[in-house]
Amino acid sequence: MARDTTDFRPIEDFDELVEHLAEGNKPRDKWRIGTEHEKFPFYVDGNAPVPYGGERGIRAILEGMQHKLGWDPIIDDGRIIGLVEPTGQGAISLEPGGQFELSGAPLESIHQTCREGNAHLAQVREIAEPMGIRFLGLGGSPKWSLAETPKMPKSRYEIMTRYMPKVGTKGLDMMYRTCTIQVNLDFESEADMRRKMQVSLKLQPLSTALFANSPFTDSRPNGLQSWRGDIWRDTDNQRSGLLEFCFSPEFGFADYVEWALDVPMYFVIRDGHYYDMTHITFRQFMAGAARNEVPDGLPTMGDWANHLSTLFPDVRLKRFLEMRGADGGPWRRICALPAFWVGLLYDEAALDAAEALTSSWTYEETLAMRNAVPEQGISAPVRNTTLREIARDVMAISRMGLKNRGKKNRDGYDETSFLNTLDEVVARGTTSAEEMLSAYHTRWGGSIEPVFMEYAY
């Protein structure tokens, strides 16, 4: 999230929190695609991490991008920590370890998404390459230890860094040493949200498997295909993971609100200052628990929007749905991830087919898949078959959905070509992570250094 929300309207009751989510309902002609992708900056000389400050640091890249794009700076305690397009059509932000993120504009087609991603990468390369900096498209930092990884001067991250070790063993790795590609998608009603939430939760392990791209940690194989997927199994299980209550046939906005109210908060912002609120839940906040701790210690709609942004389930509900299961990857994956989910969720026939395919999958079965995927990838078992075989059916449904959408580029091609990189994974039966591990044991000569050349932007 590029910039935390400021909205001073007081919260009067529970129904306002539900209505906040319901305001995301949009007619189908207003549905859009918002793609986010993160990447690790590194110095070409020595493949070292890039700190925030200095003439060749993250701040200098942001300042160069600001000059080039004319976007507004996002300032935290006097320091630039991001940029936002003046009309809200996109933003650039920093993850805790310096991961450089583009939060794309809400667009109508994958063609536009791919052009946006390519333009961003060209722009950031133009600024960064004269500094000797390139960017790595992986799901996990392959070389640098947690101690070697830079820390970005962002107030919310200082609070999270103190809190994470109290609630899980891998939260700091999540913050500082992972990257993702996400897509944000719309819904037209509570019923439509429910269908999309349930289908996408059940298929999120498949997304993790298809995009598995983080097999190295601390310069050696970590025994996993998606280290990032494994990290999310013990980051903060109060606010992340697979949400069992979402599998209910009656699941709705109010159920998500009930859950969110009982998750500990991270912060509230008052007069630009971040106050640590990790000791109370939002429900306790609403009951007045912070009345004497912070100025204006009663909750606002801005506090609620910020709280929703600090929840990390596999599919996150805000005024749209966020698909959160995929590792970061090379540039082709930036287009493939939104294509995969748009094909499944934005065409009625495709959504019907995906729902029929997964309708009998239980929470326990989906959780078992989620737990198996970080190590086994698309070979993970599903009932009497494997995820690879399930992937064949799901890819066909996604391809059908994209074809039915009929969104063509100037040359007359529809969006289905953006799935080709995932078709390759299914056809060969090996993930990107397995391909990297094979290279490590053969032509890379037991070194992870070549990854900085072959997977760099």
TrEMBL record:
GO MF annotation list: ATP binding; glutamate-cysteine ligase activity
Disulfide linkage: C114-C335
Superkingdom of origin: Bacteria
This protein's UniProt keywords: ATP-binding, Disulfide bond, Glutathione biosynthesis, Ligase, Nucleotide-binding, Transit peptide
InterPro entries: GCL_bact_plant (IPR035434), GCS2 (IPR006336), Gln_synth/guanido_kin_cat_dom (IPR014746), Glut_cys_lig_pln_type (IPR011556)
The UniProt record lists the keyword Transit peptide: yes
Protein name listed in UniProt: Glutamate--cysteine ligase
Reaction(s) the record says it catalyses: L-cysteine + L-glutamate + ATP = gamma-L-glutamyl-L-cysteine + ADP + phosphate + H(+)
Family: Belongs to the glutamate--cysteine ligase type 2 family. EgtA subfamily.
Oligomeric form and interacting partners: Homodimer or monomer when oxidized or reduced, respectively.
Purpose: Catalyzes the synthesis of gamma-glutamylcysteine (gamma-GC).
